[in-house]
Structure formats: structure tokens, C-alpha cells
Write a structure and sequence with these properties.
The chain contains six helices and seven strands, in the order H-E-H-E-E-H-E-H-E-E-E-H-H. It is an alpha/beta fold and 240 residues long. The chain has one domain: 3-Layer(aba) Sandwich (Rossmann fold).
Length: 240
Amino acid sequence: MHLFFRTVIIFKVIVFLTMCSEPLHGDDFGFRFIRIQYSSGYRGGRGRFGGAPWKHDYPTAELNLYEALERTTKIKIHGQPLILSLSDKRIFEYPILYLCEPGFWHISDTEAEQLREYLKRGGFILFDDFRGRREWNNFENQIRRVFPEKPFIEIPPDHPIWSVYYEVDPVEAPSLVSGRYGKYDDQYFAMYDEKGRMMMVVCYNQDIGDGWEWPNRNWDQASTEAFKMGINFIIWALTH
């Protein structure tokens, strides 16, 4: 798509988001998007459509999300999006991590130990863009190396994370994953620490990063809802 028309479409989506929100007031220390790079044990390390699965939608998704944050919230953007591995000590400098395609994710012992410590200290991670039982099983196997006993708890539609900034209906929100999955197949799970703090959000049978990358494909307001979800997740993590 021509850059001018793509920019116009992004602008229209953001205008709609602005109409739906009130600015978030108060100081913060800035937000930087951290995408997690990882190795994969499947298909020679290649994802569903070729290429490394961890970098799907990169960097357009996070850059469009930055624009939406800057235009519709008072969150300060701090630096360009950054790619880190879970073994990198720098993850402790950032409160939110994003991991794409966890259905292809493989975690080492060192990474599992460090992710466990990061989450126990108050960090938050968003898992996005995977589908089907095989991919769920792989994801769960990796998480069990981090927290062997903690349960996944489905986030109910009336949880305040869906209204912390934007009003989002997770039941009616379109699913953006490809294949045979329909509008009502997406599910959202959380895992909590001992104090009841949400440590992670898991977007299963969903791909909100695709909505960030392709605002021109706003069928049934899918991209708009993806931006609203992402902003809600970020605000929830920063304020809880």
C-alpha cells in the first residue's frame, strides 16, 4: 500500500480511538516496547509463514502502537522499540515484555529462571499470536518450566482490565488469527502471583499484533479493538 494512504488509514483509526477515550493523567517514567527474541524447536526455527516467529509484525506493529499511545494517552514513549532475549539482564529495566507466536517458543533453563525472577519482582509479559491445541501445548510446556504449578485463569468479560481505559468487549472482539478460527474462538488467560497481581496476559486464538500492523484491514473494527486491547493491557500493567 502507498505510504500516504497507509498513513491516512492509521490516522483514521487513531482518531476513532481518541474519540473513545479520556487522556490518562499523571506522571510516569516512560514506556518502551520490548519484543522478546527466542529460539524455536519447530521447522528449523521458522514460523508458520516463514521467517523467525518471534519477529512477526515487526517493526510496524510496535511503531503503530507507539503512535496510538502518543495520540490517545499521556503515556510517555521512552526510546525506539527494543529486541531482547529472556537471558538479557536488561529485561529488569522494563515493566512490560511482548512475546509473539509462543506456539513456536522454546525456553532454556537460564531463560526460565530469569523470566520467573522478572515476574516475581513485578514484571508483566504479554503473549500473543498463537492458535490451536498443538501451539497451546507447546506454550504451556514452556510456561511450566517457569511456574510448574500456577494455573492459567481465563479473564472474564467483566474483569476491570477490559475497562481500565477503553471499553472492550472480549467476547465480541474479532479474532485476528488466520485459518479456521472464528470471531468467538479467541480466549484470554492470566496468571497471578501470590498477592493476586496479574503477571501475564495470554491472547489465545488471537493476534492483536496483526491489528497493530495492519490498521487498513479494519474489518468489523478488528484493528481498532486490537489497539484498544493493547493500550488497556499496557495501562493495567503500568498501574498494577
